[in-house]
Amino acid sequence: MTYEQFYKEQSLLARKLNKEERAVKLLLLANSGFTPSELYLNYQKSIPDQVYQKTLSALDLYFYQNKPVQYLIGHTYFFGLKLKVRSGVLIPRPETEQVVVKVLENIAGVFNPKILDLGTGSGAIALALKKIRSDAEITATDISEKALALASENAESLHLKINLLKSNLFENLKERFDVLVSNPPYIDINEEIDPLVRENEPPEALFAEKSGLRFYEDILKEASQVLHKSNLIVFETPENKDEELIKIVKTYYPESNYEIVKDLNNLSRILIVRNNWRIL
Q1: Number of domains the chain contains
Q2: What is residue 140's three-state secondary structure?
Q3: Which of 22, 58, 149, 173 is most buried by its number of CB atoms within 10 A?
Q4: For residue 80, is it within any domain?
């Protein structure tokens, strides 16, 4: 069997099981040691038995036992960066890359920006920003020691310097920032979600009280104590809470310029709050 035949066969099965086809490619890349371009160049070659068996076993765990592929291979890709992931820390999602894009767009004319990544998890957002904006001073916080340890490993392996701090929201922060970015927990505690996510990823990084909006209010209520008067706030958001989020923004930043950004599927994805912030 060739790599191409294996890929097509298992991708078809993934579709039938309502699973992600990209899982097949991720596992093939991990077990073959190929880069994406190398895999393409070897598509017509026979798949070695060891790679075949190892990939098939991992796919069985993903298809039938709801084990995330990223945890099985120990890494994922985010904004072009290879990040380590492990159980107990949220897996970075491709859609969160748009948060990075929006921050970068809004700080294009700002030199040496001081950025706070609140609830950094694996460090994905902070490290992606640092990769593009090496002049930025970035502080990434989390309440989870497991998350901070993983973020530290990722920073070291990518040779990127960020400041990591254990903090419950703002409690251990002593300085002020230009930018606050966060992908907080925002799933309503009563909402039914994919068993793949529910059974494997840390609930404290997924669920929030007050219909999933608790952390937006907690953050916006206290953010002024760590932000300069001219500041930018960027959140990833749930797709169906626009009115509620705008109400929270108007409560704590009534003079702000705010914007809700939709993704390619026309679903609300990002909340941007600008306070005396100028965009070039």
Answers
A1: 2
A2: strand
A3: 58
A4: no
Is 115 a domain residue?
A: yes
Q: Is the pLDDT of residue 280 over 70?
A: no
Global pTM value: 0.91
* Residue range of the domain that includes 247: 87-275
Same domain, 172 and 141: yes
Scan for tokens 């206290």, then name that residue.
222
Domain end (from 30, 65, 100): 65
Residues 132 and 42 in one domain: no
Backbone angles phi and psi of 179, in degrees to 5: -130, 135
Segment 51-82, tens digit of pLDDT = 999 999 999 999 999 999 999 999 999 999 99
Residues 6 or more apart whose CB falls under 8 angstroms from that of 91 comprise 68, 70, 71, 76, 85, 122, 201
